[in-house]
Write the structure tokens for this entry.
Amino acid sequence: MDIDFYKKWACQKMIESSQSNIWEGHWACAVIALTTLLEEKLVPAKVDNLIHENLVKIVEEHANEQLYRANKVYEDFPAQMMRLLIQKNHTCHALGHDVIYSFYLLSMLSRSDIPATAELFDAMGKIVNGFAASGPGYVTVNGENIVIDPDGIPNTGGRLQLTPEAVLDLLQDFQRPLQMEKGDMQLGHILTHGHAIVEMKQAYRQYVYDNLDPAFYARINLLAYANTLEEKRVESDMAVTETELNPLEPSYWEQALVESRHGHYYKYAYSYLRLCRMAGRNPSDFRVFQRIL
């Protein structure tokens, strides 16, 4: 199957997710991440076949009910999507998934001739609104998943403008007990949410300057506050696995075939490698993957 097949599959998955369970859109994002890794050659050729195996596994195990219907093209799709996001940028929604889903889809469409339809726009509107209505997402504290109101906690200080370098440094430097991260995957979503924002700031500068940054930093404040509530302080670097998780090596993609953690193996690899390229950094230190996977 060619790359366009997977891109159309991702469009249809977004549509069907909007009609049933918006979290199923994770698999659309996973497919887009894998196709982008291949198209932009973010990984060495030695892992290409394994990435294709992962693509086949996703579309077989999470099959769509219908094919994507490329009719009724929606004019000015990117601009309308950005306006939809900006209207709801005042606080963080569902670990940033409104921004993450939108970025993945817009980025994929910008690299293909696949038309964005009115049906697809309506679906994305339902998804973005659904995430906004779902709240900030839960945080694992003392073994329990709780919801903390990000607007009800103090600001932890001044923030830098989000750039590829800033997201990578924050991912590396933010300290969080391992058991919290294993429970809620918040740190991994700092990576994907931050990546989505910096990419959209470049691609859609006329709509996005720093107006998506506050929601991101609201999540950082929330996580810093949650750390103060955690009673069992097992630091993240004390209990990492001995197995290396390196997306430039076949072993990473072999493990993803066994358990992709809701597609996060794919999205984390894409975001990290893409940010490294944007920042002009050589991706050589992959210890962070032991913290977020």
In short: The first helix runs from residue 3 to 19. Strands lie at 139-141, 144-146. Residues 1-293 form one domain. The chain has 13 helices and two strands.
